[in-house]
Design a protein that fits this description.
Chain lengths: 221, 679
């Protein structure tokens, strides 16, 4: 395959990642949110493999497999179990309404493109144009954490941010060294476990998973 | 023959032994106290010998310890200046350790004696290390250990909120000072290497460097104010009257007697040994601050009726007097008058030693009085001279010494300071011509006020009748407390009677720092006469004065007692009133009333007299109540605004913390966006 086609594939996958990010931003149901997160992981994993093929860096295949197993299978499974165990049936509660969130998201994408413009001009990598998407994904993940009240959606936002970072790493520099990626994967896994344990505690303490309840922990002055 | 520096290191290490005792024989408090303070006393004696040898030895010893950070080992150095301070610290530590055997035993059960022993020894060892340190790192480590140990000693009775507050205030002031000192060392080490690295952290490297005036001024100001915060120079004195009353008295004696002196050591070390060349206004600044501290300190002391608070304010005064000597010496040095500089420096250092002795003695006496009466307010005491004859005699020695009266030591050093003042008309700057006579007058005023203050202290506590309400059985202090106090009294007397010998010994310091000796001090006239400048101008003979005083006393005694019937005891004339009660005596508040009237504008005074009608009409009051509150104006001027600002600022900052995760996330989100957009 020639490089041009591969660059097109890379851009297409980037678009899909961004699309899933927006879909997650607009999704109200928690189960669908988990599914969307799995999709995002899948696109990420394919993208990593493609980049690995283009740059003929074989360790990227390993990280692609790692992404597939952790972010597409394991984490969604854990989150799913969590949702079932904690009997979360409610729709996702938001602080800001969804159209506004989407508008802010669009503004963030434009901002990221504006921000990465100088990088795009200087870089010679074929994947350089996807850096803006990666940055936008990070910011949208953070935005999701801010605008959602529910603790489970906040961890999904956090994991989406991590996806964006990973995407940035593969598109900007053809991936980090394998050791670092292994470490990051382990971190994410452990973070998910810790979050899971905390959720159980939070829900037993507050009878709710809404993080607004935690305001009562504040020291009064 | 063991070298002085080795001896002093042995002494520092020996202070670990009492700490080990706490672990080994901690369950037998009586034995623990006796053994650990004996070892502390012995270890202090080692340092006394090491210090005395170092000053007399005319040579400088250096040592690099395999301690500290990997590339920054600790350097030690024992020269004449550090030897002198080690001598002073060791001497008072010896007296106080002897005293502590009895004092700590008498503190009673339930007090954290083990903690006291541990930190007491760490504290003294750290003071020795401060004097020995020859690099910025070792100095600051020792300095901070000293501050931390003394913090825990001030916190001795941490059950009371007033003690915790005092200790906290002390900690804050100590740290502000330490930060300034750290910055000063940073500047000096930086200038030496051109701000490249920290390899010139040794004092040796700083000594070799030539500082540009701008940086030298920065370094000097930083270090001076840093040390001033520790020494309690006005306006940094606020922690002293808070911390001293709440600490155990043996600790107060050490803190006031020698810990403040480590700050003096630091100032002398940095100005005379490291920077060496400076303009005359530095010395003028030190002189002015010294004068302010001396006068204000004694005035504040006069207003107090809490015995230990009063002594704490006197420390402020005496630090002021020491700084006057050092400031004068700096002025003379900058005008290249080495002999006069040597005179002023010796005066300052002599007063350092004297103050250590008599203030240690006074705090020990105060401890004995407090211990016996369980009372801190002087107005509740009286007539103790009958119940505690020994303690009152020793306390009287301290009072005479601090009031600068012959034949005791306070007189000698203040007299030397006056001599330095009287030599000053030879200075070429008009401002100095104006300032010097004023300074001399203020110093004289300080001495007079100090004497008035100690007339009040001795009179109210030891003379007259018991004023208190409590019917506590007052007994004389135990043998070890008496021993500690008598040793300190003896030191006061010796330093006052034989100054020529002491100054001859101390001359090595001025020779090493200023390259000048007070040659005329002795030699021709021997040990009898102290003639700092010129025998034609001024001379003082301690032994002759002592003989004179003893002779006058003896003659008076003989004249009164030789013929029976010369003395007859009659009832006190009651001025026509029927009943005289102890309440009608002069007390601390009434004695200081004239000073409150004259110098009232310097204080924040609230005075109220309320008439209390009990049964009858208000026109016929049965009783009156007097209320007096005297406060330090500096607190309101300088400290309260700062504290208020800090509290306000932290309130405002606290508003940022909602406890809502979303808000925190928004903070980081906005920060990221702003940073990305700006950079």
């Amino acid at each position: 395959m020639n490089l041009q086609v591969l660059a097109q594939v890379n851009s297409f996958l980037a678009a899909l990642v961004l699309l899933t990010a927006f879909a997650m931003l607009s999704q109200r149901k928690i189960n669908s949110l988990v599914t969307l997160f799995a999709w995002q992981g899948l696109f990420l994993s394919i993208n990593t493999a493609v980049v690995g093929f283009v740059a003929s860096k074989h360790h990227l295949y390993i990280s692609s497999l790692l992404t597939l197993s952790i972010k597409v299978i394991l984490l969604p499974y854990i989150l799913h179990v969590l949702v079932v165990r904690l009997k979360i049936r409610k729709e996702v509660e938001t602080i800001v309404n969804i159209p506004t969130t989407m508008l802010i998201g669009i503004a963030l994408v434009i901002f990221s493109y504006h921000l990465t413009a100088p990088v795009r001009e200087m870089s010679t990598l074929i994947t350089r144009s996807t850096l803006a998407v990666a940055l936008a994904t990070v910011m949208i993940g953070l935005l999701m954490m801010i605008t959602r009240k529910h603790a489970v959606t906040q961890i999904i936002g956090f994991l989406a941010m991590e996806n964006g970072l990973f995407f940035a790493a593969t598109s900007a520099t053809y991936g980090m060294p394998l050791v670092v990626e292994l470490g990051v994967a382990l971190d994410v896994l452990i973070a998910a476990f810790i979050f899971g344990i905390f959720f159980f505690h939070i829900s037993t303490t507050f009878d709710s998973l809404s993080v607004e309840q935690m305001e009562s922990l504040r020291e009064d002055n | 023959m063991i070298a002085p520096i080795e001896l002093s290191i042995i002494s520092v290490v020996a202070f670990v032994i009492p700490v080990l005792f706490v672990v080994v024989i901690g369950n037998d408090p009586r034995r623990l106290i006796r053994m650990s303070f004996s070892v502390s006393a012995l270890a202090s004696l080692f340092s006394v010998v090491a210090g005395a040898m170092a000053v007399a030895g005319h040579n400088v010893e250096q040592l690099v310890l395999p301690l500290g950070l990997p590339t920054l080992p600790f350097h030690l150095r024992l020269d004449q200046l550090s030897g002198f301070f080690i001598f002073v610290v060791g001497l008072l530590s010896f007296f106080v350790s002897v005293y502590s055997v009895g004092y700590v035993s008498g503190l009673g059960a339930g007090k954290p004696v083990k903690r006291l022993i541990v930190f007491y020894n760490i504290f003294i060892a750290a003071m020795f290390m401060v004097c020995l340190a020859d690099d910025a790192l070792c100095f600051l480590v020792a300095w901070e250990v000293m501050a931390a140990a003394s913090y825990f000693l001030v916190m001795f009775e941490d059950g009371r909120s007033e003690n915790r507050r005092a200790a906290y205030l002390y900690m804050v002031m100590a740290h502000v000072g330490a930060v300034l000192i750290l910055l000063s060392f940073g500047v000096m080490a930086g200038v030496t290497t051109g701000f490249e690295d920290f390899s010139c952290y040794t004092f040796d490297a700083m000594r070799a460097a030539k500082f540009p005036l701008k940086w030298a001024t920065v370094a000097f100001l930083l270090s001076f104010f840093g040390f001033a915060a520790k020494a309690g120079v006005i306006p940094f004195h606020v922690w002293l009257p808070e911390a001293h009353p709440v600490a155990p008295s043996n600790v107060s004696a050490l803190m006031s007697g020698v810990m403040l002196k480590t700050a003096i050591y630091g100032i002398v070390r940095i100005t005379f040994d490291i920077i060496k060349v400076f303009p005359w206004w530095w010395g003028t600044m030190v002189l002015v601050l010294g004068l302010v501290s001396a006068v204000m300190g004694v005035l504040y002391a006069l207003m107090q009726h809490d015995l230990k608070k009063l002594l704490a304010y006197h420390s402020v005064e005496n630090i002021g007097i020491i700084l006057i000597g050092i400031g004068l010496s700096m002025i003379f040095t900058s005008f290249h008058l080495p002999v006069m500089a040597a005179l002023a420096l010796i005066a300052g250092l002599y007063h350092t030693m004297n103050h250590a002795m008599f203030k240690g003695l006074l705090f020990m006496g105060a401890g004995a009085v407090l211990h016996a009466t369980h009372e801190r307010n002087m107005d509740e005491m009286g007539g103790l001279i009958h119940l505690m004859p020994w303690t009152s005699a020793f306390f009287l020695v301290g009072c005479i010494s601090i009031s600068a009266l012959p034949p005791f030591n306070g007189f000698v050093s203040e007299w030397l300071t006056f001599q330095a003042f009287l030599l000053s008309p030879s200075l070429p700057v008009p401002l100095m011509k104006l300032l010097i006579p004023m300074g001399a007058a203020l110093l004289a005023l300080t001495g007079a006020l100090a004497a008035a203050c100690f007339v009040k202290v001795f009179g109210v506590i030891f003379l007259g009748n018991w004023r208190g309400h409590s019917q506590h059985v007052v007994t004389e202090a135990g043998w070890s407390m008496r021993a500690g106090m008598s040793l300190a009294s003896l030191a006061c007397l010796c330093l006052g009677v034989l100054p020529a010998i002491v100054i001859n010994w101390m001359d090595a310091i001025s020779e090493s720092l200023l390259k000048a000796r007070l040659v005329t001090t002795s030699g021709v006239y021997g040990w009898m006469w102290l003639t700092p400048v010129d025998p034609e101008r001024a001379s003082y003979s301690g032994p002759l004065v002592l003989i004179g005083i003893v002779a006058v006393c003896a003659v008076t005694y003989l004249l009164l007692h030789v013929k029976p019937g010369n003395i007859s005891r009659v009832p006190v004339w009651d001025c026509g009133f029927k009943k005289l009660t102890p309440k009608m005596q002069y007390n601390a508040v009434s004695f200081s009333m004239p000073f409150r009237r004259i110098f009232g504008f310097l204080f924040d005074i609230k005075e109220q007299i309320r008439l209390v009608p009990q049964h009858q009409h208000p026109a016929f009051p049965e009783n009156s109540q007097y209320y007096l509150r005297v406060r330090d104006r500096f607190w309101g001027w300088l400290y309260k605004p700062v504290i208020d600002r800090v509290v306000l600022l932290s309130r405002k900052t606290g508003m940022l913390q909602h406890g809502r995760i979303h808000v925190y996330l928004i903070y980081s989100f906005v920060t990221i966006i702003v940073l990305l957009a700006l950079l």
